[in-house]
Design goal:
The protein is mainly alpha-helical. It has 14 helices and four strands.
Length: 358
């Protein structure tokens, strides 16, 4: 009787979280991520043993750490993929704010760990690389601002995001970390391009970046040394690039055999920056092509799905995250084959998870 007089208010029927997640997730991309993680553990069994021996640790100490941190990362990835875009945006904004504060204090309390750049924050045996957390947070904040700017009475999100970009790049350049700075600028340009930026503006930004690179070359010995090494017609066989190039040549099509590679004993960063050299030497071109294909599946399928996305924030954030993911992989492998200047950048899901040390 009450319903006949006042009417009934229908209750929205919601699907359970897990079935809805399984129905909407891109299973090809998810499978590719897990395969890359498995390949990383496989390569870590070989690449990290020399490092453990040098540090008088258990031979598989670093592989065990990679498995623990990697499993935590996979769990976090699945959890975040189940949350709403609003929750992802809030987490991204909070994470970006925290990472930016840490990046700002790096010049005062940071450590270079023998790499020539102050990128690490070390406290009581716990080390953290804030810039790795800064990148996804920056993309999410930029996408949020640019999506809000599309509303009729929205804030000047493009201008605000540009100011944030200048601040972030300025603090990264102080480390100096020009590679991460370039990646941040690229991510901002991608989000702005997808949001509808005119090509003239994109070209102007690229011109400013080029001018900044020239300035950095003239005023930073760290930057100039890497550029000069890249442009040199000959590679010193005793450098990391020399060892990596030789390992890739030795691997050939099928590789020298599991555990038979020698580059891991010469390269101090064989388990991180030059993990692809270990893959090429021991497993040959076949594994390298498989890794390339897996990265291609993740990036291409992500962008194809985002083309049909109606929510501006999701479309912008997803495009930026997918592109910096693919570009970071391209930079890592490009350095190993000497197509790009040396840059301390890991191969996502494959390299040892070195952004946190305990």
């Amino acid at each position: 009787m009450t319903e006949m007089v006042y009417g009934s208010s229908p209750v929205a029927v919601r699907d359970p979280v897990l079935p809805r997640w399984w129905r909407t997730i891109d299973r090809w991309s998810m499978t590719s991520v897990f395969v890359l993680f498995g390949i990383g553990l496989l390569l870590g069994l070989a690449a990290s043993v020399p490092l453990a021996n040098r540090n008088n640790l258990d031979p598989y100490f670093y592989v065990q750490k990679q498995a623990i941190f990697g499993t935590m990362a996979m769990a976090a990835m699945i959890f975040i993929s189940m949350t709403s875009p609003v929750a992802v945006r809030r987490l991204g904004i909070l994470g970006f704010a925290a990472a930016l504060v840490l990046v700002m204090i790096l010049p005062l309390v940071g450590a270079d760990r023998g790499k020539g750049a102050v990128r690490w924050l070390s406290v009581a045996g716990f080390s953290l690389q804030p810039s790795e957390f800064l990148k996804p947070g920056f993309v999410i904040v930029t996408a949020w601002l640019m999506a809000a700017a599309q509303d009729l009475r929205g804030p000047p999100g493009r201008l605000i995001s540009f100011v944030i970009l200048i601040v972030v790049v300025g603090f990264l350049a102080m480390q100096p970390d020009f590679g991460q700075s370039a990646l941040i600028i690229f991510a901002w340009a991608v989000v702005y391009f997808v949001a509808g930026a005119p090509m003239v503006l994109i070209a102007t930004v690229m011109g400013i970046v080029s001018a900044g690179a020239v300035f950095a070359y003239q005023n930073s010995e760290h930057f100039a040394r890497r550029i000069d090494g890249f442009l040199s017609p000959e590679v010193d066989p005793r450098t990391q690039l020399g060892y990596a190039a030789n390992a890739i040549q030795e691997g050939g099509f099928f590789g020298v055999g599991v555990g038979e590679g020698q580059v891991k004993w010469s390269l101090p960063d064989a388990h991180t920056d030059f993990i692809i050299a270990v893959a090429a030497e021991e497993y040959g071109l076949i594994l390298v092509l498989l890794i390339l294909a897996l990265f291609g599946v993740i990036v291409v399928r992500s962008l194809i799905r985002l083309m049909a996305e109606r929510d501006p924030f999701t479309r912008l954030a997803g495009s930026g995250l997918a592109c910096i993911f693919g570009v970071q992989a391209m930079i890592n492998m490009g350095v190993a084959v000497r197509l790009l200047p040396a840059k301390g950048m890991t191969l996502p899901f494959v390299s040892y998870l070195s952004l946190i040390h305990i």
